[in-house]
Design brief:
Blueprint (H helix, E strand, L loop, with lengths): L1 E5 L6 H13 L5 E4 L25 H21 L5 E5 L4 H4 L10 H8 L7 E6 L3 H8 L4 H13 L6 E5 L4 H14 L1
Parallel strand pairs: 1-3, 1-4, 2-3, 4-5
Helix pairs in contact: 1-7
């Protein structure tokens, strides 16, 4: 099972995934968590980009090559390393459709959507949003407040499929945890 969490910086994706993993482990359900794409052989260092919108865009050619690399990594992981684990993605290439600047591209969204179709199946996409962007802004300050507010609205309106579930980060975490666990355990 592949489960994606999307939302602005500081909204609580990582913390919520951690809580879900803990609850699943109490039922002997194994899970793995990756940021954006799977790590193969533990060679990929997870980097924390404290200024994700400050870099210059890549060329379209380089963006397509990078995406081909993502597809390769996802499928190698899916075919040879995943096993029967539930895999959580804290961000995913779907994120590029919402926040192109973070991923340094200006490539056409239709081309991105086409390339995403070559990735392994996603069972659920949990999208976190807030009505209190100011509170979220003070957690990380990785992007300016206006950009954060703009992206939060884009995530709120982003619905990739019937697999997308909108969660309010303003609610008690146990409410969102319950929604997520019911979906996962139902499958």
């Amino acid at each position: 099972m592949n489960i994606v969490f999307l939302g602005v910086d500081g909204i609580g994706k990582s913390f919520l995934i951690q809580k879900v993993q803990y609850e699943l482990s109490k039922n002997n359900i194994h899970s793995k968590k990756y940021n954006f794409y799977p790590s193969l052989f533990n060679l990929d260092a997870t980097t924390n980009n404290s200024s994700p919108h400050d870099k210059k865009n890549r060329s379209n050619f380089l963006t397509v090559l990078k995406f081909i690399f993502y597809i390769y990594k996802f499928w190698i992981f899916e075919l040879f390393f995943k096993g029967d684990s539930i895999v959580f993605y804290d961000r995913h290439p779907l994120d590029i459709l919402v926040d192109k600047k973070r991923y340094r591209t200006s490539i056409n969204s239709n081309l991105i959507a086409l390339m995403i179709k070559f990735l392994p199946n996603i069972d659920y996409i949990f999208i976190l949003h807030t009505n209190n962007t100011k509170k979220i802004y003070f957690r990380k300050k990785e992007v300016n407040f206006h950009q954060l507010n703009y992206l939060n609205k884009k995530y709120f309106h982003f619905k990739k499929s019937d697999k997308s579930i909108l969660l309010s980060a303003d609610k008690n975490i146990d409410i969102n945890l319950d929604i997520i666990l019911k979906k996962i355990l139902k499958k």
